[in-house]
Amino acid sequence: MRSSARAFLPVISAALFLFAGVRFDANAQTESVIYSFTDGSADGAVPAGGLTFHSGSIFGVTNEGGGFNEDGVLFQLTPDGNGKWNEGPVHVFEGEADGAVPSPVIFDAAGNLYGEAVSFGEYGYGLIFEFSPIQAGWKMKVLYNFTGGSDGGHPEDGLTFDAAGNLYGTTGGGGNLSVCQWDPWNLGCGVVFELSPAADGTWAESVLYTFTGQQDGYSPEGGLTFDSQGNLYGATEFYGFNNSDGGYGVVYRLSPQGQGEWKYSALHHFAGGDSGEVPFGNLVVAADSIYGTTWEGGMMSACNGLGCGIVYELSGTTKKFKILHTFTGGADGGSFLSPLTLANGRLFGTAQLGGDLSLCQGTGGSQGDGCGVVYSLSPSTGSSNGGFRVAYTFKNSTNNDGDGPDGRMTVDEAGNLYGETRIGGTYDLGAIFEIAP
Length: 437
Known about the structure:
The chain contains one helix and 33 strands. It is an all-beta fold. It has a domain of 188 residues. The strands form seven sheets. Strands 2, 3, 4, 5 and 6 form a five-stranded antiparallel β-sheet that branches. Strands 7, 8, 9, 10 and 11 form a five-stranded antiparallel β-sheet that branches. Strands 12, 13, 14, 15 and 16 form a five-stranded antiparallel β-sheet that branches.
């Protein structure tokens, strides 16, 4: 479980890096906090992963808080009609048969809610859950318990549906337990899986691909995305072609071949350094292009020598690689666990650090890390920096608007963006924010 403390974030270098060709529209859009998590118990603490709109409400999860074991909360925010939002827990995870540390959720057409718990469950390796609306609230059903064996273990990056109602996701471990053996808690390199419903209400799991930790990558991260032809896209954190010193990650595609068979294709192997390291999934697929981010790499002199990450595009039939923006850790932000969102004709994302480096205390006491930013790019500019702009700079140290934004943002019908910060807010336990266009 990731800690809520800022210690889990890479440290920004002392220098405030400036560069040409990037337009910074700091605070160009209006941000407001619609909810601050209060005490880490009933409402949870450390929201992360992303938000989902359904029937006018916002649904999300926290990594911590809740019951005695503080294993996370599935929550709902409902507007009161007077410009405020009321929070209520859908479920408080107990770290037992119901799992622990939930992932972002999705809905089916009938209003049922689906998600994952990264750990615990029947075998200790996580589970897939469903919540169905009932008159008194919500009823939980566990659809599948992972064993940590060939079926995978520790799902954590969210689910996606196909047109037939099957669920798809990834696990960070499990699969072939003879490889990737350096983590006793999480043997195996991970799998891509499908859950299919049966007429009797049960769900069956099938493994679409088992990672080997070689050129195909290790530890899929960030979930999956479908294109219009039914192909699945994702990314692995590590390994790939350049794996002599641990590897830098792979963007991959799984294509259906019929009869339940899927073909794996590696679309891009990250070379590390200024070309980016540690990509995340939940990729944006638009026309013949794929857009994504890396956590590290890029400007290697920044973010404590790890690099602050990049935004990249893979385009055309050959999926030609292009860097749209290299983060500096300064006013443009740096370091993120957040995929992109396509909204209002632009790509939006969040960076956990950077922005105003005089705020949000950093390591050593003299300089801040910055509280993070919301940024945007235009996928159609064709320019080397993608028309990069800073849409909002967080200033939690001065106005409690949040610190460390994390997770994919979501958009409502009016074009307002909603996201979350892991910490900050009124009680420093995280916040949900809205940005008006």
